[in-house]
Fold:
Amino acid sequence: ETGVTQTPRHLVMGMTNKKSLKCEQHLGHNAMYWYKQSAKKPLELMFVYNFKEQTENNSVPSRFSPECPNSSHLFLHLHTLQPEDSALYLCASSQEAVASGSDEQFFGPGTRLTVL
Amino acid sequence: GQNIDQPTEMTATEGAIVQINCTYQTSGFNGLFWYQQHAGEAPTFLSYNVLDGLEEKGRFSSFLSRSKGYSYLLLKELQMKDSASYLCAVPYNTDKLIFGTGTRLQVFP
Structure:
């Protein structure tokens, strides 16, 4: 595997379910990110981890819970979601969490989440 | 605060040239990124500008004017595979990227 991988690619869940999204990067990067992409809206940053430490929680509701056990893996635990949480959830990584400079972010293919 | 504006949609013909504009307002400036995102796929990095002027990379070029808060992405010799969304993004607070809504480009034969 190369780059940034995400599983599952598609997920349908009820509002009372608990599920987890997984992201893995094979690039040796130290920073990982969760983004939410809804139709006709900009990519919204949710969480940032730098060297396994959470450095940003962009006012995300507590029904989304991130976990970063090591620099290569990132999880997003979901519980009691709402239908408006249906979106594409993208994981990204970069060498470090320094968005200045040419430190581009590499994105995974995303998980298409539908909440019924 | 941070604000980024891009046109929502553009159309162009195969072989033509298209310019996608982006205006931004940020407190502090740490460069500007352009990403390409095909439908149903992840965004991929295209360019990064931190100095004024035009940077060319094959068929794609990106321009920046810091004094005007303005950038554009220039696509030459358009191909059908260039049909995608083009996202303008600026960093802030050292570890975040703010994205525009993206410009959806459709290339017709």
